[in-house]
Design a protein that fits this description.
Length: about 425
């Protein structure tokens, strides 16, 4: 596309692209925007070095290679702040510039937003299901090594307490949490191997550590854990079996042993439904892995990136089932006096409708002239976490249900013209 547009002179035409999803996945009533900060960081370094240009010169003409040699995005980008909720048709990202500079961003932005948003959206459902109990992201062994780092950040953004991924801590400041694995217990062989393993862990980590008690027999494991650490033991973890039943039994046993403040952590193929089923059990926190880093059945957010405006004039697709609304758009969200949102209104950019209701404009500037104009880094991540909490609290109660159903709020599109 770039080579053809450069050749016929259309590459320099002013273009407007939008990233949106045509519909929410069947099991989702809302989505959580994530990946904005990672995209802005990637955008700043999105250039073509000598090695890339050498590869491209094998199948691209000289004019196109020359354009890419000098490439730097110099356009404007607006979008939803990271951590904001979105719905079908929400103009999550609007990109303006020459057709040439906008079109080459497609894979970069879609790969980041589709992954991170899917993870954050799943994580938010898990956080809501946990009802205020902390969750630990433990999915690094279930996904690509780089995706694992991004997933840990997205989960933290959506409300998880921390991650077992050290690189996510180094790169993004996500708190590090974790426990030992069964291998450490199995390493200590003999009749008293489990007790020896627990004593070794306590000696290294202190009594506030978390001991994994289900390698053999859970009741014996709990007894050994308290014997090794005393009644001040920080926590025990259960990773298998009927978790709700075991949690009640372990709580009772811990209390009888005097370890009344020892917490119970559960893990083992949990998703939002499994977490919700444990709400009545005496569980203090959850470790979540596979379901989280795979989007809990929705591994991609379904975002697309479409040309919607050329030289200020709306353009749109009419393809069956894949129609697009022409023109760049922005959005606002209407709420009752109580703060509960009632609808999202998508309108032509720069032309907000007059509304006799409490409303908040969602779209914000992100990039101007190629330069980032919004907060980034750890402060932005903290703000995004607060935004998720506020967004979930603003939804009608039925919009938070895990069951399949309609989006949490309706979307109204104000037509161009």
């Amino acid at each position: 596309m770039l080579a053809a547009a450069l050749r016929d002179g259309t590459a320099s035409r002013r273009a407007g692209f939008e990233m949106f999803t045509r519909r929410l996945p069947e099991a989702r009533r809302y989505g959580v925007v994530a990946g904005t900060d990672r995209f802005l960081e990637a955008l700043a370094g999105f250039t073509f070095d000598d090695a890339a240009l050498s590869l491209l010169s094998g199948f691209l003409d000289r004019q196109t290679v020359s354009f890419l040699a000098d490439f730097r995005f110099r356009g404007d980008i607006d979008g939803y702040p990271e951590g904001e909720l979105y719905f079908a048709g929400s103009p999550v990202l609007s990109v303006q510039g020459s057709f040439a500079e906008c079109v080459v961003l497609e894979t970069l932005l879609l790969s980041i937003f589709n992954h991170d948003t899917a993870i954050a959206s799943a994580a938010a459902r898990m956080v809501n299901a946990a009802g205020g109990r902390p969750l630990i992201e433990m999915g690094s062994r279930r996904t690509h090594e780089q995706a694992a780092v991004a997933a840990a950040r997205a989960a933290y953004l959506a409300g998880f307490a921390g991650t077992s991924n050290l690189e996510a801590h180094r790169r993004f400041g996500v708190p590090v949490l974790g426990t030992s694995a069964h291998a450490f217990t199995l390493l200590h062989t003999g009749a008293d191997g489990e007790l020896a393993a627990f004593r070794a862990q306590v000696a290294a980590q202190g009594v506030d550590t978390t001991l994994l008690v289900d390698t053999y027999d859970v009741a014996t494991g709990v007894a050994n854990a308290v014997a090794a650490a005393g009644p001040g033991l920080g926590a025990v973890r259960i990773d298998s079996g009927e978790l709700a039943v075991l949690a009640h039994q372990v709580r009772d046993q811990l209390d009888r042993l005097g370890a009344t403040k020892t917490k119970i952590v559960v893990s083992g193929d949990l998703d939002e439904y499994g977490i919700a089923a444990l709400r009545a059990a005496p569980v203090d926190s959850y470790g979540v892995g596979t379901a989280l880093v795979t989007g809990s059945g929705v591994p991609a957010a379904g975002f697309v990136y479409k040309l919607v405006e050329v030289d200020g004039n709306p353009v749109h697709k009419r393809s069956t089932g894949k129609e697009s609304q022409g023109g760049l758009k922005q959005a606002l969200r209407v709420a009752r006096d109580s703060g509960i949102v009632t609808e999202e209104v998508v309108y032509p950019a720069g032309r907000p409708p007059a509304l006799d209701a409490r409303a908040r404009i969602v779209t914000v500037p992100l990039v101007r002239g190629g330069d980032v104009v919004t907060e980034t880094g750890t402060a932005a991540l903290a703000a995004a976490r607060e935004r998720v909490v506020a967004g979930l609290h603003s939804l009608p109660w039925e919009g938070l249900k895990l069951a399949h159903g309609e989006p949490a709020i309706p979307t109204r599109v104000v037509p161009v013209g």
